[in-house]
Amino acid sequence: MSQPFPAPQWFDLPRAPAPGTVVAQHDALADACATMVALDTTEGNVFRLLLMRAGPGVHAFVNRCPHFGVPLAARQEQLLQKPGISISCNVHYARFRWSDGLCESGECKGESLISVPLEVHSDGRVCIASDPVDRPPGEL
Ligand code: FES
Hints:
- By secondary structure, this protein is an all-beta fold.
- The chain has a single domain (about 25-130), classed as Rieske [2Fe-2S] iron-sulphur domain (Rieske Iron-sulfur Protein).
- The protein has no helices and eleven strands.
- The protein has strands at about 20-25, 35-40, 45-55, 55-60, 80, 85-90, 95, 105, 115, 120, 125-130.
- Strands 2-3-4-9 form a four-stranded antiparallel sheet, with no helix packed on it. It has a four-stranded antiparallel sheet with strand order 5-6-7-8, with no helix packed on it.
- The termini are far apart.
């Protein structure tokens, strides 16, 4: 299914956190598990991310389904995931690939979750990357 408009970048979304914002401590994230975090932004508003830890690495997606722009899940215990393989939307059950957020089946097949670049620091802080653009490996 083709997408009528380009997907927004994470930093264009309302309440997007600033680069450098701490989102978690690495050792607090279960390996091969998606963890939902709600970042307090301004005036009690929150920005929800899904942190996908794989060993020493962590990548993140905005908790937003490309089908209707709604959260994949409202709470951690509602996340539908096959650890290390896929995560699914609670609304119409579109299934997204763990590694890159591509929708493999469902109403928005071929679209992707919005990726947010992260940096893992030597002290274990997991932060929004200082460079807000998420580039494929090897691309400058
Ligand atoms: S809103 Fe997520 S699959 Fe429809």
